[in-house]
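Case study: DUF4835 family protein.
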Amino acid sequence: MKYWIYIITLVFGLSNLNAQEFECQVKVDAVQTGKLQLTIFDNLEQSLTEFVNQNSWTNNRNLKDHQKIKCSMFVNITSYEDNFFEASIQFQSSRPVFGSDISTPILNINDRSFNFNYTEFQPLNFNPNTFETNLISVVSFYLLTSLGMDADSFEKFGGTEYYQQAQQVASAGQSANASGWSSSGGSGDFNRFNLIRDLISQNFSQFREALYVYHREGLDQMHEDVELGKENIIQALDLLKENNKVRPNSLLVRSFFDAKANEVQLILNGGPEADVAAIKESLYKMAPGQNRVWKEIK
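Here is what the predicted structure looks like once written out:
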């Protein structure tokens, strides 16, 4: 298996390790429902926490705690009636930076089309080949997508198998006519089905290559050579610029900067000097929604 975790596991030796891949904090907020006295919200939070952290989402991955993917899910319930929930989900994941004690964000998504049915104490079981519930499908989709992006950040195109599994989940949700899975649906211009379609598409191969260059050849190198690491991060931004020329205003590029804007600003302002004028011009074009952050680059 090519994925980096396998190599790390061999280096450190095998022992009786947990097979779970995520260390995820889950929060369910039901303030807007006005029904905080109901226990179903606490039960949902506990069930989701166990579903994410106690399941094994990949094959042959025995991880120590420091190797697990850190993530958080904030589920905001806006309406609840007869076991039907209207909600949004904020999903964030990160991975460690080599040679440091910091983490870098990988995925930051705010999905406002998260409607589902759930009954108290209902077991949550994931089957990649069938649609069970929208609750299970949406959460599983983001876990698999974050696994893919994490893998891409350690090995060029290392996340393909996870993206393919996430696409299976999306296709099953679309076939079931479940909320938020239509290729033309979603809230605003965000769409789950299109997100995973683009991650698998050859049209976005430069985006995926940029994930590797930015993280493995950029951030992970900075503990040894700050100048080289910064140069490679600028190279990754150039790859994103080229991808943006072919597919302007894409969801993927915007999602990247939703997670990375503040980090990019700090990197460009710190360390060895760089010609930031041209870089800023590209950033303004790629992610105009982050213009407030780009103005801080000097």
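For the exam, be able to explain this: Residues 20-200 form one domain.
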